[in-house]
Design a protein that fits this description.
Blueprint: E1 3-7, H1 10-20, E2 26-30, E3 35-37, E4 42-44, H2 47-55, E5 59-60, H3 68-76, E6 81-85, H4 95-98, E7 101-105, E8 113-114, H5 117-123, E9 128-135, E10 145-152, H6 159-180, E11 194-195, H7 200-203, H8 211-220, E12 227-230, E13 236-244, E14 256-259, E15 262-265, E16 268-274, E17 281-282, H9 283-290
Helix pairs in contact: 1-2, 1-6, 5-8
């Protein structure tokens, strides 16, 4: 089947990589414009744009996917179906109705509709998540689903390890959906939850939360966003890895305390940290440098 692909993130780039090697190789890839990234704010291409170039597929990065010029560009590619994955901008009418649209969404819909389904599933302590292939509609991830696969969330999973498995599952389901074209079934509204975009407040560990919940935040945001602890005058300490201790076995809630070579934030042991303006390091090394 002749396709086009709309996506932006590293997750979407992994799906594009598999799709580009299949019988449904896209004739056109549309991604978001290059944007400043990192501490140096250097103009950086989205991961999907890099993957499209590596695959030798025509790439288009319009300011708006919904403008008339982009609709004409997409129509010229003559896709039989358009695949959407983590594009990061709303796709509106009349573009929505121009082509059959298959959306690769990493959750067990209707749970975790929205922008950050993998992170929110880990944060919530869900035992499993998955990927659904759904028809894109005007409602936020509310379209009917044709295929769905489940994936357990291990106690030590972080975003990177879980997303890697979901990429494989999502690509397998997408290719199967394009091969077999199974019917789409409406989602139930019962059990619908929304995975809101990760904000600065989400990144900052809540000192009043149980250590197990704080640890899940650290895992959910590693390595792509990063959790942090507010040390007041010392600034924000990035937290890349942490371990929840038994309740009452750490230090005072909301305070950084030192136990030998261990850094404790309440009942949360900080295992790997990143001081402001420095690289990530074991917490013990940070403590030695801190004095």
């Amino acid at each position: 089947m002749r396709t086009a692909f709309l996506g932006t993130t590293a997750f979407a780039a992994a799906i594009l990589g598999r799709l580009g090697e299949s019988a449904h190789r896209p004739a056109l890839v549309i991604s978001r414009p290059d944007a400043p990234a990192g501490r140096g704010r250097r103009l950086t291409a989205p991961p999907v744009a890099d993957t499209a170039r590596a695959l030798g597929i025509e790439l288009h990065q319009p300011p708006s996917v919904n403008d008339e010029a982009t609709r004409r560009h997409l129509a010229a590619a003559a896709p039989e179906a358009v695949v959407v994955c983590a594009f990061g901008a709303l796709i509106k009418e009349p573009l929505l109705s121009d082509f059959p649209m298959y959306n690769v969404h990493p959750s067990l819909l209707p749970r975790w509709r929205g922008a950050a389904p993998v992170e929110r599933a880990i944060m919530a302590g869900d035992a499993e998540t998955g990927v659904g292939i759904m028809r894109l509609t005007a409602g936020l991830d509310e379209g009917p689903v044709c295929l769905q696969g489940r994936e357990p969330i291990a106690p030590d999973d972080d975003y990177a390890s879980l997303a890697e498995r979901l990429e494989v599952l999502g690509a397998d389901l997408l290719i199967r959906a394009l091969d077999e074209q199974p019917p789409f079934v409406p989602q139930p509204e019962d059990g619908a939850t929304y995975a809101e975009k990760i904000t600065g407040a989400d990144r900052t560990l809540d000192p009043a939360a149980p250590a197990a919940a704080q640890e899940r935040v650290v895992r959910a945001l590693h390595p792509h966003i990063g959790a942090r602890v507010d040390l007041g005058a010392e600034g924000m300490l990035g937290v890349h890895a942490a371990r929840a201790l038994a309740p009452g076995t750490g230090g005072p809630a909301g305070a950084l305390t030192i136990d030998g070579d261990r850094a404790l934030y309440g009942d949360l042991e900080l295992v790997e940290v990143q001081p402001p303006g420095r690289r990530a390091m074991p917490a013990a090394a940070w403590l030695r440098g801190r004095g």
